[in-house]
Amino acid sequence: MRQEIVTDTDDCWMRHALALADHAQREYDEIPVGAVVVDAHGRVVGEGWNRNITEHDPSAHAEIVAMRAAGAQLGNHRLLGCTLYVTLEPCAMCAMAMVHARIARVVYAAADPKTGAVGSVFDLLADPRHNHRVAVRGGVLAEQAGARLTAYFRSKRGKR
Fold it and tell me: 63 catalytic, yes or no?
């Protein structure tokens, strides 16, 4: 059974992640996915956006970029007590990175029916064999995040 912790600040932090997603698209023509890592005291310790295209790096997903920044900020590869907010449901790579980083919670906006690994296609964070559990909340500002992604891909494909 999934543990879901809901805070009044989830919408606020997701709006921050959505602003990062907008930045990714506007400034770098990247897929509009943004992520922010917030520590247990409510401080931003890492943020990022998709950089796959810009950096020619298949691992430069918004979540990975934000967790790398958080690790550097905290001086630790463990992100204990931190919450990661991301505008798209994490993939398998990002979900497992959260387990290894010991992220406390992940809050995501839009579900990913193609590669989502936090419930849509796979549910890696719920696997009882892991030595760490990540609490999950999905669907926070999902319509806004989904609309950005749909518009981005339609523009790339030349559709209205």
Answer: yes
